[in-house]
Amino acid sequence: MSRTPETFKPAGAEKVRQFLSRFPEYRSTLRLAVTHEQSSDRSRTYQGWRWHDVETHPTKLIRLVTEGITRINLRTRQATYYLLKDRDAVTRCLEELSRAEASSLATAMG
Fold first, then answer.
1. How many whole angstroms separate alpha carbon 32 and alpha carbon 36?
2. CATH code at 71?
3. Residue 82 to residue 37: CA distance in whole angstroms
4. How many domains does the structure of the chain reveal?
5. What's the pTM?
C-alpha cells in the first residue's frame, strides 16, 4: 500500500484557518501568492512564485511548506519556486477572514 507523501496532500481550508490563527502575519504572504498564481493562470510555463513576489523572507516560507500549505515546485541554484497546494481553500479562508473583520469592524463602529 503506497501513501501519498505529505508534500502532495492538498491543504484544506480548516488547516489554513488554523495556521492563520496561529500565524496571522502570513495573511499578506498568502494573499500575494494567490494573486500571483491567478495572474499567471494562462501561462503554460509558469513555475510558481518566489520569495520577493510575496514580500516574505525565504526562511519564513519554509514554515508554509512544513505546514503543508505550499510546496516547492522547482529549486534551482538561483531560485526556489513555490505553489499553493490548494489555492481555492486559501482563497476561501482569506475571504472568510476579511468578511469576519469587516463584520466585527462594523459592529464596533455601529
1. 6
2. 1.10.10
3. 10
4. 1
5. 0.82
